[in-house]
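Notebook, bench 3.
Goal today: get a predicted structure for dTDP-4-amino-4,6-dideoxygalactose transaminase from Chitinophaga ginsengisegetis so we can plan the truncation constructs. The sequence was checked against the plasmid map this morning, with no discrepancies at the termini. Length recorded as 460 residues. Pasting the sequence as submitted so the record is complete.
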Amino acid sequence: MSSQKYSRRAFIRKNGLGGLGLLAASSLLSNTIIDCTNIKGRPAILDGSAIRKGKTWPDWPIWNPETDSSRIDAVLKSGVWSRATVVSEFEKKWAETVGARRCVTVVNGTNALTVALNQLGVTVGDEVLVPPYTFIGTIVAIINNGAMPVFVDTNRETFQIDVSKIEAKITSRTKAILPVHVLGLPADMNAIMTIARKHNLFVIEDACQAPLAEINNQQVGTFGNAGCYSFQNSKNLPVGEGGAIVSNNENFIDRCYSYHNFGYPYGSVTGAPDAGALRQGNKLRWTEYQAAIGLAQLVRFQEQTNLRNTNAAYLRSKIESLPGIIPYKLSPGVTRPTFHLFAFRYQKEAFGGLSRTGFINALNAEGIPASAGYTPLNTQPYLSEVFQSSLYKKVYPKKMLNIQSYNSNNHCPENDILCNEEAVWLFQNLLLGNRSDMDDIAAAIEKTHANAEQIKKSIG
Ligand SMILES: *Cc1c(COP(=O)(O)O)cnc(C)c1O
């Protein structure tokens, strides 16, 4: 139901008044509305009682000592703490989990992206097309390679890279597209792969937020040349810190492996016996106890993902008809979304002009943790600092490093609206609750709506 079709009656029904809603058409209407307000109560932000009073949300990350500790204890007792068989076991399982032929782990998601770009040959002087609606780690990976991030605006409906704006940004320097499956929702990979093939570009998928998400039953992270993941504490498979690169290209993963281990030989990357390091390398290896944590988390991973999906679908059905609340839209062909974040767009006009900050503060006061999410990455101060570095000055023509012209070429107006005005995030652990927890979220939004003008008057 669209917001235009939204009726007062629907609002009453959604507020849990049940049968009373049926009376809405009768002369009791005005009384019902008054009752309704009473039942919703005074907003917690105006010193009313919080909807979540005395309730907690599921913890994150989860650790069950009875089932999870034995593996990590065995690692600790073995004295083999550096990379060995447990890390290899995790890599095999991760490749299976995401449906890729091979996997190599590295210290974090940022370095997974950095190494993947590097081993595909993305380097100084190259441009990489990337959405601004992402975590800074995505952009850091491009800059770590001396390459130039070129921002493609966000589709506000899907929160993903706007595929209709990619081709206009391709130049003779463009080497790769770096789509981000942000929130856990797939970017439009069919369109992206078509463009990449046409222009002979690499595709590195930032799937840090989206393991298990699918388009046409194929997992994101397996469409492009490489898929990159993060196992940082907040991510859906938490290890504390950690990252992984997957690919179906065996030689590429062998090269990534070699790089993460000082450039020593590995698999198809071979040299004369005892030749030592063969190529430029780094040291980005996992420890065995990280892998033991990851393997313990993997046991619950599918089940948790399914639970989040069930709760997200239910929550969506409860809030999508509310005025001023527009949930994420899925890209074409998505057969399985996942949820690192549950996002919707907030339109303050439907809330009597209550600012997004006011709305979020009101939800927080009701006990619903919510956030405004990202600030635009295409205008942050790091860029001018990078452009003043001796490396960038050596590599790029002066006019490319002019921050004013860079900013105007990389202007992303849709993303600005999303970041600065509309986006609201609910964190993934909320979706590990039950139906009544989802009802509380919807009720908090409705309560805020019912009292929006009053909240605005007192907090602005
Ligand atoms: C978390 C994240 C990263 C970086 O991963 P780290 O493990 O924190 O380095 C990159 N991109 C996205 C979209 C992320 O969410």
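The radius of gyration is 24 Å. Residues 108-110, 134-135, 137-138, 180, 182, 206, 208-209, 230, 232, 243 surround pyridoxal-5'-phosphate (CB under 6 Å).
Flagging this for group meeting.
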